[in-house]
Every structure is written in C-alpha cells, then in structure tokens.
Amino acid sequence: MKNLDHVLLYTVDNDAESRLIFLIALAAGITTIRSSQAHGASLDKENGVLELVHASRKTEVWTVEIPGLVTECLLQRNHIRVVIIDHHTYGSLDRVHDTNGKRKLSSLEQFLKLAHITEDDLRKMGFDPRLVHGIGVMDDRYTKGLRTEGFTPEEYQRILSYRETLDRQINPDFDKIKNVAEYVWLNRWTKAGYIICTSTSVLRTSYAVCTRSIEDALEDHPLILADRGGRQIYVNNIDPLIVKKLEEAFLGHRTFTYAQGRCWGIDNDVPGAPRISLEDVLNILT
After folding, report:
1. Do the beta carbons of residue 222 and residue 195 sit within 8 Å?
2. Of 181, 198, 223, 273, which shows the fewest CB atoms inside 10 Å?
C-alpha cells in the first residue's frame, strides 16, 4: 500500500460496496469523511466541504460515488486535487468511462488499485481478499461477473452472505425490507419478456428484490421495478441500446445507469418535475 497521508477520502456509506470501502479505509489508516446521505448523494449537498478539507490539511480528495460538480470545481480552484471514484452515470454526467473512453471497474476495485492495496494488505487488515473482490464484482457486474471471473457457486453464497452482513450494518430496516421484497417478488408479473415488480412501501426494495431474484436463477432476466410507489423506477438487464433509448425518451429528468450500462433508473423525487410512471416506461420499452 502506498503512502496516502496527503489524501482525504470522502465516501458514501449506503450499500455493501461503499461500506466495505469505508471499513478498508479505516483499517488502512486513511483519513476519511463518511457522508450520511442515502442513494442519490451529492457532494454539493454536503456542508462545509472546503472547510473540512482545509482542516484536514490534505492536498488531495478522493470522492466515492458522491458527484457534485460545483463543489469539485470549488476544491480544484483552491488547489486541491480531486480524484473521482465512481462507475455510474447521472443524467448526462458520465462517471462510467475514463478519459480514453474505457469502461471503469467497480468503485471498490478502483479504490484498491488507487491505494495500491494488495491481497496481502487485505489479509493483514483482517479481510478475505476473495470476498472483497467478490463484493466489487457483484456491485458492478452482478452474478454474471462472478461467473465470468471464475467464482464458484459456493463462493457466490459466501459473497451474498458477506454482502448481507455489510448491508445489516448500515440498514436498521434490513429485515423489514427483505420481507417486503419477498412479497413484491412473489407478486411479480410479466409483459413483453420483462419481469415487472411493484412496491408501495416507503422502504427502498430494489436492491433486495434483485438479490431475491438470484434464488430463482432469474437475476439476469430483464426486470422492471417501480419502487416506493413509483418514486423510483428501475430497468435491469437490458441492452445498452435500450438504455440509450430510455435516456433519450426522458431527457431532463433525473436518470442514472449502473451495472456496466445494462441497468437504468429514474428518480421521481425531484420537486416540480413531471412524474414519470411505470406505464410511461413500459410504453417506451414495449
């Protein structure tokens, strides 16, 4: 591991991958600020970022899945180097590709590479390198990625169990969400080759529903989920050309992509913006 005394890590802690990045950073002695924001986090919504960075006396900030162009520019104007760790798009903001147009790996994999944290380093910190790698692959490339990279079915189960352990650390409603996801999954229906799930719970169930689909070996099947009464809508396991079609259909709305550009979502929690319904999304897809 290289010397990172000049680095401040600014990270979210809202899923298994980001929780693991946070834990590894703490174990490695990296100065870290943990955002309390949930999914959709933005550096521009954090308070006093520049003052916190100055107080830390660091000259370089690494941000993890917390985009915020205004604050990033503010830091750079104050001669602080900003390193982006991310693998998503947010509307027109592309944080999936590097400057050469190459698709990035998961945020966890990027973090380990940037910090030069080796498998031996992980073992010394008390982590299982195979599980750590699996969490990174799973977040970005799901079980298809695990298969591609040679993980066995037995290792899938260990990774899923470890992911649940990490999720439980950050989500006090984990068991409630799991129960809701079970109900949502059992009441799924299909249209034009898509599995369709709907949830009216105020709890976010998309992550748990996707995990539940693995039990029925349907995790790679095209799936649409209208979550929280349609406040968020997700379309998973589709061709990137279909993702592009959805992006073009809903320009100006808060959209995002993930999972190597094969999953797409729209956030209706934007004040004053027209609400996009499940029917609107289905009309584009079918």
Report:
1. yes
2. 273
